Amino acid sequence: MDFRRALPVSIACLALGAFGVGCGGDDEESSGAGTPPPAGESAGPARKAVAVDMKDTQYVPAEVKVLKGGTITWSNSDGFAHTVTKEGGPGAEFDSGNIDGGGTFKQKFAAAGKVDYACTIHPAQTGTITVE
Description:
Immunoglobulin-like, alpha/beta, seven-stranded mixed sheet, globular, disordered N terminus
């Protein structure tokens, strides 16, 4: 193999590959579809799928936005139980019951508006959902 000819070709391929990674956009993410942001990160614009962590007796993030028809998944990172219980706002009532450490709860949101929720075990643990 002639490495003098292979080296420039390899460099060109690497350069084009690096250029391609930085170009374009992800249409799914910009439309709010696809993978939810990691729990604990601000959701920013409303998304179809949102993740909320229950950690240190808090909902992280405490305020999220979800698209109408979208789903929120709560994950309990604490070593003790929490609940996700609707306190007010439009749409169907929901109450997760006890979610033990390591457990999850999913809820779909069909009605636009602001929804308040809390942990019935830890009343100071509250969150707000804006359904757009």
